[in-house]
Amino acid sequence: MSLRYAVLGLLARRPSTGYELTQTFDRSLRSSWHARHSQIYPELAKLEAAALVEVVGLGARRSKTYAVTAAGRAELRRWLVEVEPDRSQRSESGLRLFLTPLLDPDDRQATYERDLAHVELELAALGEVQAGMQNAPEPEAFAPQVELGIRMNTVLRDWLREQIKASAT
Amino acid sequence: MSLRYAVLGLLARRPSTGYELTQTFDRSLRSSWHARHSQIYPELAKLEAAALVEVVGLGARRSKTYAVTAAGRAELRRWLVEVEPDRSQRSESGLRLFLTPLLDPDDRQATYERDLAHVELELAALGEVQAGMQNAPEPEAFAPQVELGIRMNTVLRDWLREQIKASAT
DNA sequence: AAATGACATGTCAAGACGTACATGTCTCAG
DNA sequence: CTGAGACATGTACGTCTTGACATGTCATTT
Known about the structure:
The structure is a homodimer. The first copy, chain A, is mostly helical. Chain A folds into 2 domains: 2-82, Arc Repressor Mutant, subunit A; 92-168. The first copy, chain A, has helices at 2-13, 18-26, 37-49, 70-82, 92-99, 105-131, 143-168; strands spanning 16-17, 53-58, 64-68, 89-91. In chain A, strands 1-3-2 form a 3-stranded antiparallel beta sheet. Chain A starts with a helix and ends with a helix. The interface between A and B is large, with 55 and 55 residues. Strand 4 of chain A pairs antiparallel with strand 4 (89-91) of chain B, so a sheet runs across the interface. Chain B binds a DNA duplex through helix 2 and helix 3.
């Protein structure tokens, strides 16, 4: 059911078209919940049928802009506050990291270096988000979340560097 | 396809029964890949059909102990080293954290406190794993992975404490 | 000797998800 | 004025995952 609340949550931040949501899933949400447009459009239709979102405008190229309704906001709040979180994760990267000690030193080194390159890109991207945040419409509310992302990736980067250095001996 | 390699990887660490794998998925792997027994048993059957694992012993209560074959080890190595990782994540907790700024201060405080309680339990559990690691059969290989888990959760704990303190003002 | 509860393996139906297919619109370069 | 490419929405089929159902074993307690 998380997809439903991910969509509801993004629309609560700002009304959007399905296309825009797809891009947001790829950008801001890539590190917590991933979804394709083939899932997003049907979910929007279901949410509209349930009166949790509504079409608030038609744009160019047949685009429809959706916004949450009052009922949608209430449902989102209920889920965030009252529903017990499912803490289980699905992260291929995490699984790979967990299994890496099974590799012999050369292979291990190579995969750690691949990961390090990726984490550094991630950190650069988050740095830009943080820098570009002053001129956002509703600015400061999400700053701590970006900061958390940076701290997490920094820990991972440092750990990877240590592993690479340690096995280079 | 990750499930397949998760199973293969756990069996590469040590031969196990399906039941034991289920428990390991709940314990060690809960923070990277989650699976139920209803997925694990069929996957073991498929892996056996593909000759990537084999039954190496029958135990009490009809239990079967599986171990990876040479082909299984090679396939696991191939996946870890040569297949481009899928970096997309699915973490309900991450999604919740991302959406929390939408809540009003009281609700936000409550959810952060719920998360903090959980992270502290997690840290305690990881601390025990780390402490009990000296007397493990193959001891030190996975120590850095445990250490990473502790660091990640520590960052999250500190961040949550900051958020709670900041909005208590 | 029977009940209880942990151990242990399996299947099935429904729902979630990804890949590929399909269609149409608007802008801009050439 | 035409073709390329981004914009925009949708569907279909197959696979992955969950939750519920189903069955049987072994050790301990009563």
